[in-house]
Specification:
The protein has one helix at residues 2-23; strands at 28-30, 34-40, 47-54, 62-67, 72-75, 86-93, 99-109, 115-124. With 137 residues, it is of the alpha+beta class. The strands form 2 sheets. A 4-stranded antiparallel beta sheet has the order 1-3-6-5, with no helix packed on it. The protein has a 4-stranded mixed beta sheet with strand order 2-8-7-4, with no helix packed on it. It is rod-shaped.
Length: 137
């Protein structure tokens, strides 16, 4: 009986320690999940930044960040983001594409929620024609 009790206690302790070790996990919180560029000029700067914080208790590692098309280029942090630290994901939209746009950026990481969708939207205005001042040379 004593052996059974000791064995049961030992197994319980083992699984308790294992459970505690697994609870440490990264968790990501973005300031915003969408950015509206509004109306922007043709060939203007299409770079925006999604700021975030690792609110978990383990380092945050990004495994993949991808966009819904080649016109949107996301840049992921290369180093792990420590617990409590802040970081950013830079997104660059190609502003040589005139018209309304809505694009998604998929963020994969080791966070509690492993996949997060970020969105960008806006409208690139027509290229402005150079005005002729009416003078002849």
């Amino acid at each position: 009986m004593k052996i059974t009790l000791r064995l049961t206690t030992l197994i319980f302790c083992f699984f308790s320690v294992l459970n505690l070790a697994q609870k440490k996990q990264a968790d990501i919180k973005f300031e915003t999940n969408s950015i509206d560029y509004g109306q922007i000029d043709y060939e203007s700067d299409g770079t925006k930044v999604f700021k975030f914080k690792n609110i978990g208790d383990a380092p945050l590692v990004f495994t993949r960040i991808s966009s819904s098309c080649g016109c949107t280029i996301p840049k992921k942090p290369e180093k792990p983001i420590e617990p409590g630290a802040e970081g950013q994901i830079e997104v660059n939209y190609d502003t040589k594409r005139v018209g309304i746009f809505r694009k998604a950026v998929t963020v994969n990481s080791n966070a509690k929620t492993p996949t997060v969708i970020l969105r960008i939207m806006g409208e690139v205005l027509e290229e402005k024609e150079e005005e002729d001042d009416g003078q002849m040379n």
